[in-house]
Amino acid sequence: GDDKAVFEIPDHYYPEKYKTLSSTISNRFGDDAGRTIPVRNIALPNLAQPMELPYNDQFSLFVPKHRAMAGKLIDIFMGMRDLEDLQSVCSYCQLRINPYMFNYCLSVAILHRPDTKGLNIPTFAETFPDKFMDPKVFRKAREVSNVVTSGVRMPVTIPVNYTANNSEPEQRVAYFREDIGINLHHWHWHLVYPFDSADRSIVNKDRRGELFYYMHQQIIARYNMERMCNGLSRVARYQNFREPIEEGYFPKLDSQVASRAWPPRFAGTTIRDLDRPVDQIRADVSQLETWRDRFVQAVETLSVTLANGRQMPLDEERGIDILGNMMESSIISPNRPYYGDLHNMGHVFISYSHDPDHRHLEQFGVMGDSATAMRDPVFYRWHSYIDDLFQLYKYKLNPYGDDKLDFPGVRVSSVGVEGAAGRNTLGTFWELSTVELARGLDFTPRGSVLARFTHLQHQDFTYVIEVNNTSGQSVMGTVRIFMAPVQDENGALLSFDEQRRGMIELDKFTTGLRPGNNTIRHRSVDSSVTIPYERTFRDQSVRPGDPGAEESAEFDFCGCGWPHHMLVAKGNQQGYPVVLFAMVSNWAEDRIEQDLVGSCNDAASYCGIRDRKYPDRRSMGFPFDRPSAAQSLSDFLRPNMAVQNCSIRFTDTTIPRQQRR
Ligand code: CUO
Fold this sequence. Notes:
Bound molecules: CU2-O2 cluster
CATH superfamily of the largest domain: Di-copper center containing domain from catechol oxidase
Distance between the termini: 36 Å
Shape: globular
CATH topology of the largest domain: di-copper center containing domain from catechol oxidase
Helix content: 25-40%
CATH class of the largest domain: Mainly Alpha
Radius of gyration: 25 Å
């Protein structure tokens, strides 16, 4: 046997159908195992509600019934008095509770219990690879694991562009929508920021409503740039719920749990009233329209109607945060009965559009799950519309004045990038990577299986920013770096308003400025937006002692963060023109006083910091989150800002990741 420990579970924890097996199971493991750990026998909590979800069904947080069951289970996990009790109840749950729900609820509990900080959550892609990869991989993986004895690891290859052919224009950005790292980021984000829980403190995090708005706004800005690099128009909003959705989507993912495929949505599908008793959902499309109208009304009057009938003003400081919670919605919405659940129910309507009354006994499509939603073109249509509704509010605010934009005494004379691709050029290419698939596959002999897939990558680069400090003393500044497209889809120059809405945050960091000239050099890999490749995938090819190995173990938790390999858009072979923007703002006005020791704090721009406040006092997206009277970006510039025209040059070659190290 090996030196793996095995848990010895009390007999009555086994479900009835496994009872006769229980002694066999423990005997078999007992022979193999180096040591056994007895699981504490506790008085089991009432699990009737979470057990209502059949073991083999899909689980969606967007479905109100599932949400309530998950809320109950999270409550149970949070309420366990210590780790041993938690482990005990988990071992009881594992054979009874729907595995997707179990995994979600346990992950939320581990993230939020004080005694589980530093504990591993297995990377989601490994636990449930079927949500991220083509099922062919699993069939091949099974063959590989049956044929190849352990020790020899033959990677199986995930094909590129497997969901459609070139007749589908949307396929040109499939590498973005179906990127495993992007989908993992989105799943992690919603795990860190749940919208529902019996425990309010899990939901009520600093500026979570604003972050909901901002993180998704940035996804849309990034997707639009990606589309324009590929000769597509910016995404069209899904705003008329009575009209068909133009694009179809055929996910080609197999659910291992349900052993059936994710349902597709045909092109030209219209959402319809839902009546699915099995999910306890009855909702009319008109409800979405009512909620939308009430949201717009609140924005127009800058005032929210509370449950007691009073009005609450939407002020500059809290307005967007309140609207974010109202829109999503989360349980800290100021009035959920009135403003409803627009964004979440949009996901639900779309994800059931192929079977709104359950007559075909179909489950929800990919839009019903935060682990898979970003694969579907309609995700971006829906979130473009959501973003437009938030922007209605931003248009009500006064443009930033000199007092907010200027940093007297600090002048940014230039910004640029240096790297292997050349000065002010960013180089992109395809990279071939390998990830571990072992954990989620239930086959013998157990062993790791490597999956190989192709994704976008860019050459590392360095920002070089020249700053002159004439204040006569040392000061602290916040450097804010953005990038935006220059032209629209027809090659015409973008208006400033379109350009500012297309601004993509690349980095944000604090720096000291000595009196006189300062040259700031900052590496792209240190971006505050992204997490390293090793953390996105917990790369199994990293061995102890390799660069990234320690980090990969220590930061298992901090899976939220835009995947670094998607930091910049693909560009094109001619060189896609973009503008790079850098600003230094006065840190004394930006700072949040807090201790950051030991937190996941290196992807704060889109994910915040665990157990801390959002580390920037300014509105998210500052200085581009508000409209301005400026006619062009150069009009907008102050002495403490600079721009540089750059281009993103794509080379159509595929380089194995290992070769690049
Ligand atoms: Cu992230 Cu709609 O919120 O998916």
